[in-house]
Amino acid sequence: MVMVVIEREFQRGRSLDDLHAMMTSNSWCLTLHGVLPLRHYFASDGCRLVCLFEAPDAEAVRRTIITGRMRAPRRLWSATVHGQEPAGEEGDRAGPRSLVVVERSLEQPIPFDTVQALEDAAQACFEQRDVKPIVSYFALDRRRMLCLYDAPDAESVRTANRLAGLPMDIAWSTRLVLDGRGSVEPE
After folding, report:
1. Mind listing the pLDDT tens digit for each residue in 115-147?
2. 83-174: CATH homologous superfamily?
3. What is the pTM of this model?
4. CA 2 – CA 119 distance, rounded (Å)
5. β-strand 98-105 against 48-55: which pairing, if any?
6. For the chain, what are the domain ranges?
């Protein structure tokens, strides 16, 4: 089994109820292809969604999308996991904190250790802004990466990454709406 990442964008904001309906209507298809939803990160504005699945391979997730007649995602890729995935909902963190996703596109394939070394060298930038790395999903082709941070807000994460010289496409606040229990909680 491998980790498969789906990235989606929506023209108009979606609600958690929309996401719940999509998952419920396609649960049979996930089972058919041996795809287990692990967690979803849903943007605060409802316009972005990252879905993480455990599957036999990326093709099983593609077949699920086709069979379920779902709209093709912006990206679909297999990944390795680095760090500790969050155990629960955002309420598990103390104080007014945010989960923030950073999307990274890498011009050339590079080893994960190279990116990690850059982040380690710039740890002071992250500490100064109270930004804590949680987990990274690194594409098997070594050209794509999603990083999850615990921080006061998305701007703190943007600033820390920019000052650290880390490649960054976009950073956005998110909410963990699906975990390993396999259920989506509507608003």
Report:
1. 889 889 989 999 999 999 999 999 999 999 999
2. ORF SCO4226, nickel-binding ferredoxin-like monomer (3.30.70.3090)
3. 0.89
4. 25
5. unpaired
6. 2-80, 83-174
